[in-house]
Design brief:
Blueprint: E1 4-16, E2 20-27, E3 31-37, E4 56-62, E5 69-79, H1 88-104, H2 112-126, H3 131-148, E6 170-174, E7 179-181, H4 183-187, E8 200-203, H5 204-215, H6 228-246
The chain binds zinc ion.
Amino acid sequence: MDPARQNAIIVGGVNYSDSSRVIWAITPDYGRQSFLVKGARRARSKYLGCLETFNHVELIYHKGRGGSLFTLREVDVVEHFSGIRRSLDAFWAASEAVELVKSVVHEEQESNDAFGLLLEFLRQMDSPADPAAVKTLLAALRWRLAAITGHEPQLVDCVRCGTRLTHQEKYRFLPAQGGIACNQCGTVPAGGGTDQPPALLVSYPALRFIYRSGRKFPPAEQTGTLPPEVLKEVETIAGRYLAYHFGETARPAGSQPKTGG
Ligand SMILES: [Zn+2]
């Protein structure tokens, strides 16, 4: 059987036996994939330094008969992103992005958009600016990922009555309903929805950032960083919204990424 070839981003791995490792990768065509790397733990392994988390690589592997664990034959590093490992802020944000993408991408699922988003994010993190710019980009990634996975919030028309929203200073964001409600609908509790998260007040600049982030990464006309108070709003809403729609995927902003894996 001819070997298969895949563009991939390494997102983690575990040791397997004394000499081998299993690595996890995000690929455009097949989503999350696992590969057995024989001899990866040997001192003179040809894979040394090639299979680190964040690496953009080309994998050449054999498909097994059945099962989803493939055997790696060769790897070429396309981009190493050494800049990410030189900045604590960039490293933290890149780890967070990897966890987020890993949690929404499934095996054997076309994931071209999520792959492209993660790759672009890692490129941005490779030459990071100040910590606020890193946080702004991470916030943008969360909203773009929501859009890619079919959870783009409704921000133009009221989520309850469909009326076009008018310009105002603060809008009412309803996480469970998936977007903004008009002033009439936003103040009336949903029928029997006592277990639903309450409406969050969101400013126009925060709303605009969420809207633009959903369409494109990095968001259009977004140069540099959001003002701290707007960034805080965007992060709070992302935390509540993604927690509601993705479950535990979205940890509160500022929490530490999961270790290991
Ligand atoms: Zn309404």
